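Page 37, top half.
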Amino acid sequence: MAQATRTFAGLDIGTTKISCIIADHTSEGIRVVGVGTAPSEGLRRGAVVELEKVVACIERAVEEAERMAGVTVKGVYAGIAGDHIRSINSRGVVAVSRKDNEIAQADVDRVVEAAKAIAIPMDREIIHVIPQEFIVDDQDGIQNPVGMSGVRLEAEVHIITGAVTSAKNICRAIQRAGLKVYDLVLEPLASSLAVLDDDEKKLGVVLLDIGGGTTDLAIHLDGSIRHTHIVPFGGTNVTSDIAIGLRTPIDKAEAIKLQHGAALASMVSAESMLLVPGVGGRGDREISRHTLASMIEPRMEEIFQLANREVRKQHFAEMLGGGVVLTGGASLLPGISELAEQVFEMPVRLGSPRGVGGLSENVADPRHATGVGLVLQGAQTEGGTASLFTDHSAQAPRGRSFDIRSWFANLF
């Protein structure tokens, strides 16, 4: 008997754009059936600063996706990012409860809860608790300890926290747009699900999601999330540099960046010219593309250096055989992979969403990595697995280690 079709919607609330992706989940896989985007207003570095503008943008993006898909969206899996995100690794230890020393799911639940017992400020809330590995007595590297024998069970987990007010305002904006929030997912984790291969996650890889307001970093190793970090710079900073350097309006600077920009000045000929609109009634003038690239390259290099410093500070640099994967809107700049290779001194590739059918060509773009990842996570969560949070949580009950729904209930 064929599996019933389920429909999922992912909502990527970014600093420069808001996108909604609707997908059907059938026995044949995930099919994208609707895509909607709207320019983002009322957000700064992933945080809501003008609620009504954000609500209006969400409504426009969702309505466009609904028209294309021919369905009505009732709730979404939403992304969260911003420079308020923090992460830490923690360890929990419990004694196995059964007399025959067989580890049960209840023991796994207890050890994850023990690992969550860390002191966090009152203005912050845990968003994700991601198991990395389990240790039974002295045997480490265990993915799923249920059914094994042991006296002591330990868990290494990665805990991601966010500002309560930032998360609450995102949820409020979505609810004001007439939608339910089924889950809130850290955006680089969703992007990882859409663009990374399992082999890369096992071998070790850095995902850099270069958005408008922030650049989100996620390090995978041995099939698990090992570290996440937010660099508080992104594509809007590049646009601002161009606007100031060329004395042109912000919207014109954005258009110039998209049409003529490059991340590596050495790749651009000094003879190629472009017209720059003046500001305040001043006349247009000509500059070379090389001059433009010379303004973009230092900012992109700074972003990569900050990310590389974080990778090396966590002592992962020598273990990342999969190199670096770039995604997000700003990763489309010509020469960006070559610049990243110079800074990180490891292989770099551009990551586009994969693993979906239907309107796959409409989302085969790094700008849609987070949105596709959100619908993939929705389908897998509803299906009883949570593979976004590594393989060894796959057999856990839904919401075992990341049940943020109860948190939503307490927020309002």
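Page 37, bottom half:
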Amino acid sequence: MPKTMLAVRKMTPDKGFDVVEVPVPSPGPEDVLIYIEAASICGTDLHIWRWDQWSRGHIKPPLTLGHEFCGTVVAVGDKVRAARVGDYVSAESHVTCGMCYQCRTGQAHMCPKTEILGVDRDGAFANYAVVPEKVIWQNNRDKLPPEIATLQEPFGNAVFVTMNQDISGQSVAVLGCGPIGLFTIGICKAVGAKAVFATDINRFRMDLAKKMGADRVFDVSRDGCDVVAEIVEANGGYGVDNVLEMSGAPSAITAGFRVVRNGGRVTLFGIPAKPVEIDVAENMIFKNLTVLALNGRRIFDTWYKTRWLLEDGVVDLRPLVTKTIGFDEMNDALAMLAKGDACKIVLLPNGGRPAEIPEARRQGKPDPNITGSPVHR
């Protein structure tokens, strides 16, 4: 076990990330140490890289970034109950308190004391990462290669949004083809949507929407586009049954309430940068709409649905992995995402190789090189 490692860190309060050498962390009594095989870049990481207004209010450098990942457990704390050295795992990025009202009533994804990996505590853009045992998720290596296993965390957001309503046999408009919107398109088609209409302003992402199964894709940036009229025409002259708003753009939110049929359903998941004005009477009350606002995913209920969709090949996410990178390409990758020229970019901190774990350690003999971290079985 090495004593130091490389990590992608926010060192100073300005734009960009640094790749620095830091000590390999030691797991606490209830933690596990994970050798990172893959870690994917999220829109949150892009916000932090840009050092925008949200980041300035939430991030305290220095911090190791990254909350979407998979890897191999290489050490466990002495109070860890189920995780074992050699386990191939991912993790729920939200570390919740377990004691508040939300946590105790099955709503841990709303815990007001949540700490997020790579935001409130060090994350996984590194050779190794320490996380609490309670957030790890067991993977099947034969069914989920690292570049897909790392996507389970963000994919779960789309699973949560889509499966909160009955999509089968329904017409659906997915407004916004960022990664979560693209995941959503694949899920809608997999669970039997009658028709899926997608909208965006980025040609690269619109092409991916077609690959994920969208029946029609509309470029809302083109001159003279009336996306509401065009979707209604494509849907046989009727408003759609379900709108899944994934962009947070005010124009998309307005269009969503207009394009849904009377008695239909609008689910809001995209996060607007500022308050949005809505005509509640005309767009909600008089249309007898069901409106749902969602964030995150249900811990861990959504993960079980995610496992089925990915391990059984119900949804194929391979078209959405634009490229894999090493540490030295991180800032270029963020710039690529900022320009809209990529969907998911996956960091392979250790070249994508699984950890080499001696059989003695698998059998529970302590590793003297890991301070304060007995390995047991």
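Margin note: The chain is about 25% helix and 25% strand.
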